[in-house]
Amino acid sequence: MKYRRLGNTELQASVIGIGTWQFGGEWGHDFSQKEANAIFDAAREAQINLIDTAECYGDHLSEQLVGEAIQCDRDRWIVATKFGHRFYSFNKRDWDLSPEGVQQQLEASLRALQTDVIDLYQFHSGSNQAFDNDALWTMLDKQKQAGKIRFLGISVSASQAETNVYQTARATQVGANVIQIVYNRLQRTPEESVFPLCEQQHLGVLARVPLASGLLSGKYAKGVTFPSNDIRSQQNEEQLRKKLEEVERIQREEVPAGTPMATWALAWCLKHPVVTSVIPGCKTPEQLRQNAAAAELAGND
């Protein structure tokens, strides 16, 4: 495993992290604690130390599975979670970015994670109006002073490019050290818009969805369908077809022979000098081990 400094914090994060959206049950599988524990045992073996979760991956469900899995050795992990939503059901969430609501979410996250402090607490894809609430950031700064939060970050939207630029440009003004953004071989927009701002402010960058929701794993061909309880089933059929055609071209023309496409795709993200870590999800210990192998292709730091 390789490690990189997370922005201008003192945190040394593994270049491969664990994304845990899948633990909330929206990727077609409900995880047991035993299954989550096995994934984290594999992460220990691979020397991964970075976990990304959120308040609305289930109703703090992902956080609960994570918290139980790491309670025996909490201090070895960098735990990142998020705030801004209340979860009700599959694909149904309400916004709550009021200072009072976020403080309640923070306390709920601390309980779910079985911890006294969250290493990275991230604004979760909210609007610019919610972002520009000084009272919110004042409250969060007080929570930092109280020792409940170590560092703040901004997890920017998957689709709002102008919002992403606006919030990233103001990251240091609100005390944030890290930007989390969708970045992968099929989605390169951040290279021109967000990454230069991250470099100017010495922000850490977490690349989420680095496998394009599994499309860059090499497992799916044109015509694939996903079950209704899998969030990928919501994609437009024509857009999905075009993406898979592009994946076939990439695999044919860019991926070296003998290299698994998923491993190559993760390493591709890490070759950008601004990216600190990638945070792919995984459903099994074997998938986690395959993800971890990308560190060997990431190049020297």
Number of strands: 12
CATH superfamily: NADP-dependent oxidoreductase domain
CATH fold call: TIM Barrel
Order of SSEs: EEEHEHEEEHEHHEHEHHEHHEH
| Total individual domains | 1
Shape: globular
* Low-pLDDT windows of residues: none
Structural class: alpha/beta
Task: List the topology elements.
Layout: E1 3-5, E2 12-14, E3 18-19, H1 33-46, E4 50-52, H2 61-70, E5 78-83, E6 85-89, E7 92-95, H3 99-113, E8 118-124, H4 128-131, H5 134-145, E9 149-155, H6 161-169, E10 176-182, H7 190-193, H8 195-201, E11 204-208, H9 237-253, H10 261-270, E12 277-278, H11 285-292
Parallel strand pairs: 3-4, 4-5, 5-8, 8-9, 9-10, 10-11, 11-12
Antiparallel strand pairs: 1-2, 6-7
Task: Describe what this molecule looks like in 3D.
The chain has 301 residues and is of the alpha/beta class. The chain has one domain (3-297): Alpha-Beta Barrel (TIM Barrel). The protein contains eleven helices and twelve strands. The protein has helices at residues 33-46, 61-70, 99-113, 128-131, 134-145, 161-169, 190-193, 195-201, 237-253, 261-270, 285-292; strands at residues 3-5, 12-14, 18-19, 50-52, 78-83, 85-89, 92-95, 118-124, 149-155, 176-182, 204-208, 277-278. The strands form three sheets. The chain has an eight-stranded parallel sheet with strand order 3-4-5-8-9-10-11-12. A two-stranded antiparallel sheet has the order 1-2. Helix 1 links the parallel strand 3 (18-19) and strand 4. The longest helix has 17 residues, at 237-253. The model has no long low-confidence stretch (mean pLDDT 91).
